Amino acid sequence: MKLLQSLISVVTISALIALSANVSAKGRPGGGDGGGTSSGLDATEASHLTFMREEEKLARDVYLTFADMYPDQTVFSNIATKSEQTHTDTMRDKLEQFGLPDPNPNTNALPFSIGIFKGYEWGSYFTKNYYELTTKGSNSELDALYVGAFIEELDMHDIADCPAVMVDAGYPDPCGLRYTDERALKNSYSSLIKGSENHLRAYVGQIEAVIGQGNYVAQYLSQDEVNTILGR
């Protein structure tokens, strides 16, 4: 067992060194317009893909937590088990396709993996968000529905443009769908956005059943963007 753990550590360290060697790649401070990684992606694309693997896991984990808190509200379990599970698996498969390490290889070891994020670059960010979002949603079922809608708005922004935490770390904006020229990523990200649009409509439908039709206020995207998604 100790030998296996040592081998795993060596592989992990090697992967980190490989990624660190690309800090001056395209899109990072001081970078040029080359800088591809061994995966064929540049450092920005690689980091964003890794980020999205964890963000999709975040959505799944939060919704599974709410499904346990509010078992009569089936929207949480439906989206978590039927959609977000597929989404996080899709991002895992993209990491594998491009030869990148999975920040959370035990994602599907439920329920033990819920709320656990171990990515060296973004893991602490998602751990913090998981606890903040689930704490907010624990106040009431309506609060949990608002958290779900917030996550979907945030997700759409982060997929298409660039997560604020990545911009703060020095990555360009955009760094996602509007940045990459990799067809495989474009197709996957476009599919994720369509899924998030459907999820937002589902959450808003449940919210407005309580607060009244047409009264939902955008939480992260602009109101015009949300109204377009909702068909208003």
Describe the structure.
This protein has 232 residues and is mainly α. It has a single domain, classed as Ferritin (Up-down Bundle), CATH 1.20.1260.10. The protein is 63% helix and 0% strand. The protein has helices at residues 2-20, 43-69, 74-97, 123-137, 141-160, 164-168, 183-211, 223-230. The radius of gyration is 18 Å and the shape is globular. The model is unreliable at 1-35 (pLDDT under 50).
Quote the beta fraction: under 5%
- CATH fold title: Ferritin
Q: Cα-atom Rg, whole angstroms?
A: 18 Å
Question: For the residues shown, what is the average pLDDT?
Answer: 87
CATH class: Mainly Alpha
Chain-wise SSE layout:
Blueprint (H helix, E strand, L loop, with lengths): L1 H19 L22 H27 L4 H24 L25 H15 L3 H20 L3 H5 L14 H29 L11 H8 L2
Helix pairs in contact: 2-3, 2-4, 2-5, 3-7, 4-5, 5-7
